[in-house]
């Protein structure tokens, strides 16, 4: 890992290129546990950390990050937590499932079957509170974003684009085609840990059938 | 004991501490768009810098004090009256029960801060009272304040009159020169960004400000992998305009992140209004941090527990 690419991301943040998913999560946990960084934010290929520029110069922060990367990764806790999410696919809950299936020359059932076949992995949370970027269908199945984003997508909606599946924890605007919805609460503002999903978790979608 | 909102103006919200360490959950920082002005208002009523205060966009607002309480107004320049009598910003005042505070439309700048010598009742999320409208977090029921709202006040005190030292009054202007460093997507050919004068468009909110002007042409990649993004980032979405991110900005993004406004000058972003001019001054990372420490040192006497 000594050749990991680190770049500045402004005057108070550094970016670490970590394309491998498993390494990225282990590394993010390690950086978070050090307590040194104000923010540790995994992206889809990288991790960005924010440092305190009142306490350390950018060069010092760079040195601290470089030496943190020399520490061996604790690959022990590889049993990622798996969360099962029941989903109503298609219909009113998933208004774009039919058009996605038609564009791919598949039936709605076939699209769903491919999606629930393996657990999905949560890459990152971002965009708006609790929005989970997850792995999706294989990259050869092209699913474009909506030409016109929706003003309001209900909380619990499942979006699907090429290579990715996204989970809207809260209602809000959204540009991903929606294939289904879960009734499971993904967000509880009063809970100690308000978000059910975290980067690195695995998600098993289960077809909850007709309502 | 309470405060009544008579007229909220364009947007009035409760803001307090920024949310820290929650960007990996998709939760933005929020808090005041201009944290220095809010800290100055809180200082005049002997509050902590990050105590919950009221942020008012563009003025044009009115409030009634339902209890005797001290208050101070800072930020964007607006004519102020208390029961029809002109009062000054950057000074502590004490209201009697039933007094009405009127704020005219701001002449310069964008956001006014009103701090009270009391604890303002607000919803908390992840330890902060700051309002984040898109997800209805914090503040007064997670929403902007409306005419008729009453904010409950606790631990009301009266404090002696003070004034912000003259040299700490922000300079109000229609043009901003912001120190900035290259962003992760700055490339050869991006240099013109340091020469151009940009204009803020009508698309301005607590999430960000759109800038019009000549921007470098960057490689737009469909399905570009998203990375962390911060307040102060200048992004280049398709369409040719730039987008400068503020306190409520999304936590991750996939558009080219071409420059980052230096931490020393990020508090100024909250005062940029549509039509204002913006220029960026090229700094290296270490110059930017030197500037931050120099500004922090200037504030240390008056605002000992505030950090930029």
Summarize the structure in words.
The complex is a heterodimer of chains A (211) and B (308). Chain A has 211 residues and is an alpha+beta fold. Chain A has 2 domains: 6-76, 2-Layer Sandwich (Gyrase A, domain 2), CATH 3.30.1360.40; 82-207, Cyclophilin, CATH 2.40.100.10. Helices cover 20% and strands 29% of the residues of chain A. Chain A contains 4 helices and 13 strands. Chain A has helices at 21-33, 58-70, 97-103, 108-116, and strands at 6-8, 13-17, 39-42, 46-50, 82-89, 120-125, 132-135, 150-153, 157-161, 164-167, 172-174, 178-181, 202-207. A 7-stranded mixed β-barrel of chain A has the order 5-12-9-10-7-6-13. In chain A, strands 1-2-4-3 form a 4-stranded antiparallel β-sheet, covered by helices on one side. A two-stranded antiparallel ribbon of chain A has the order 8-11. The termini of chain A are far apart. By secondary structure, chain B is mainly β. Chain B folds into 2 domains: 2-168, no CATH class; 175-299, Cyclophilin-like (Cyclophilin), CATH 2.40.100. Helices cover 8% and strands 34% of the residues of chain B. Chain B is built from 2 helices and 21 strands. In chain B, the strands form 4 sheets. Chain B has a 7-stranded antiparallel β-sheet with strand order 7-6-9-4-1-12-11, with no helix packed on it. In chain B, strands 13-20-17-18-15-14-21 form a 7-stranded mixed beta barrel. A 5-stranded antiparallel β-sheet of chain B has the order 2-3-10-5-8. In chain B, strand 17 and strand 18 form a beta hairpin. Classes of the chains: A alpha+beta (211), B mainly beta (308). At the A-B interface, strand 3 and strand 4 of A face strand 16, strand 19 and helix 2 of B.
The N- and C-terminal alpha carbons of chain A lie at a distance of: 49 Å
Our count of helices of chain A gives 4
Q: What is the alpha-carbon Rg of chain A in Å?
A: 19 Å
Mean pLDDT of chain A: 90
State the domain count of chain A.
Answer: 2
How would you name the CATH homologous superfamily of the largest domain in chain A? Cyclophilin-like
- Oligomeric state as shown: heterodimer
Architecture of the largest domain in chain A in CATH?
Beta Barrel
Class computed from helices, strands and strand pairing of chain B: mainly beta
Structural class per helix/strand content of chain A? alpha+beta
In the residues of chain B, how many domains can be counted?
Answer: 2
- In helices, the fraction of residues of chain A equals 10-25%
CATH class call of the largest domain in chain A: Mainly Beta
Evaluate the radius of gyration of chain B: 19 Å
């Amino acid at each position: 890992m000594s050749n990991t690419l680190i770049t500045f991301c402004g005057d108070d943040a550094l970016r670490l290129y970590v394309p491998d998913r498993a390494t990225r999560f282990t590394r993010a946990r390690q950086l978070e546990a050090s307590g040194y960084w104000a923010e540790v934010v995994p992206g889809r290929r990288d991790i960005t950390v924010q440092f305190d520029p009142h306490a350390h110069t950018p060069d010092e922060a760079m040195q601290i990050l470089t030496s943190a990367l020399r520490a061996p990764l604790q690959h022990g806790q590889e049993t990622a937590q798996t969360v099962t999410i029941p989903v109503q696919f298609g219909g009113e809950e998933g208004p774009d499932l039919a058009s996605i299936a038609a564009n791919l020359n598949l039936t709605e059932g076939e699209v769903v079957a491919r999606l629930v076949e393996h657990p999905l992995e949560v890459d990152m949370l971002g965009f708006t509170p609790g929005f989970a970027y997850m792995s999706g269908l294989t990259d050869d199945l092209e699913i474009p974003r909506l030409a016109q984003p929706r003003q309001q997508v209900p909380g619990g909606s499942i979006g699907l684009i090429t290579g990715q599946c996204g989970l809207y924890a809260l209602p809000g605007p959204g540009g991903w085609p929606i294939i289904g919805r879960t009734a499971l609460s993904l967000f509880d503002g009063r809970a100690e840990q308000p978000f059910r999903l975290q980067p690195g978790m695995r998600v098993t979608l289960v077809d909850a059938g007709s309502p | 004991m309470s405060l009544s909102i008579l007229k909220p103006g364009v947007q009035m919200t409760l803001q307090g501490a920024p949310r820290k360490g929650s960007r990996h959950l998709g939760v933005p920082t929020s808090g005041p768009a201009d944290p220095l002005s809010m800290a100055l208002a809180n200082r005049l009523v002997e509050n902590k810098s990050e105590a919950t205060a009221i942020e008012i966009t563009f003025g044009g607002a009115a409030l009634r004090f339902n209890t005797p309480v001290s208050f101070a107004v800072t930020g964007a320049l607006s004519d102020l009256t208390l029961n029809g009598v002109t009062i000054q910003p950057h000074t502590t005042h004490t209201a009697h029960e039933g007094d009405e505070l009127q704020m005219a439309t701001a002449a310069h700048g964008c956001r006014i801060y009103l701090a009270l010598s009391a604890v303002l009742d607000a919803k908390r999320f992840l330890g902060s009272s700051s309002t984040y409208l898109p997800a209805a977090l914090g503040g007064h029921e997670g929403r902007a304040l409306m005419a008729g709202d009453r904010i409950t006040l606790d631990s009301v005190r009266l404090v002696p009159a003070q004034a912000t030292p003259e040299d700490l009054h922000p300079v109000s202007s229609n043009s901003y020169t912001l120190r900035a460093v290259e962003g992760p997507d700055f490339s050869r050919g991006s240099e013109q960004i340091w020469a151009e004068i940009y204009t803020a468009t009508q698309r301005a909110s607590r999430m960000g400000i759109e800038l019009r002007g000549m921007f470098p042409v960057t490689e737009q990649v469909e399905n570009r992998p998203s990375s962390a993004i911060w307040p102060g980032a200048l992004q280049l979405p398709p369409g040719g305009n730039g987008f400068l991110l503020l306190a409520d900005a999304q936590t991750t993004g996939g558009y080219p992140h071409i420059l980052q406004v230096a931490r020393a000058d990020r508090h100024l972003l909250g005062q940029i209004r549509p039509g204002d001019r913006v220029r960026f001054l090229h700094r290296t990372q270490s110059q930017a941090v030197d500037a931050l420490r120099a500004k922090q040192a200037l504030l240390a006497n008056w605002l000992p527990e505030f950090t930029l």
